[in-house]
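Handout, section B. The chain below has 364 residues.
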Amino acid sequence: MALRRLCVIVLILISTVSFARTPARPALPEAPAECQINAVPDPLLDTVALRKVLNEEVCLQEARNLHAKYFPNPGPSVTRTIAGLHLHGDAEVLRLGTSILGTLPLPSALARAQHCPDMICTLTMIFGSEEGALRALVIAKREGIVPTISQRVFNLLKQDFASVSAFTGAEGVIWTTSELRVMEHAFRALPPSMRRMPRMQTIARVPAGTSMGARWMKDGNDFTVAVAQPLAAEWGSRTLLHELSHHLQGISISSGPKWTRFKELSGWERDPDWERKAQQNTPLGLAFRQSFGWNARKTDACFPSEYAKKNVWEDYADSATEYLMGTPDFAFKCPSKFRYFRDHVFPGFVVKPPVMDCNSDDAN
């Protein structure tokens, strides 16, 4: 009898040790692709799930490094009431956070942060992660462009379309952490002439509507970019660079020798009677409405995309985007436009395409 009890005890101990050596792993969250690092030397981290968790930590650490770099010396704590929230903390963080919330903050966003004592907690709850909160603050300070969650831009956009029903959703959209990461990486790669551009104030995420992917638009005396599609990896970087290139052209190169030179590259000319012709309810009238009367008259003109053929402004924005993205075949496909941006628009600037991961030197 005693021997039988001893055997039972031994079997229990063996099963316990065996169980401890092979614990059941909980389901782990999916990490964005740009956070994933292929080489993980530690064999204990050889499962795909654990690698993804590790790489989420890489992205968060990069955001923390950036925040420490651009907010090195927190000032004295102050208390403010912002959009009905009673918050305390560093005055600069509160100021930038207030601009992110905007003049008409989304009610659904504020509802997430009702119990937060400070701005970083508020933005963490709104964007769904600490990384998102820190990157939003870094973008606002470093670039002077605020990734806002205000309803204001959506309301302005709706006024430009005949039917509000063209948009899905009753209010604006909150930026995701992945979108803020793409945005911060894209802005980081900008040349000096496109950093902190005057009158470019905000960038807003809005619901999908009509056929718009993104749009550069006027907001009073300033300008904003409205994005209606998710900013995903390379497409997101290209979209932001395209819209910011519109702003660069609009405020800095809309007249003078640089603009004349660019128009000459493709022979862009504008029909002086285009507005009257655009009012015609005919295929020709539609063509004038879409081109705003511009026509590229050079038969051997090169364009970086089909969309660039629409008018001179889209040609400029798409060409600038190809140059800034470091597209390998742009110099061969359109050598004259490549040289134009290299020599006349961004002289001395070494192109560094936006990174797609979270292990960059700039954050360290």
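Note. Residues 253-345 form one domain. Compare this with the example in section A.
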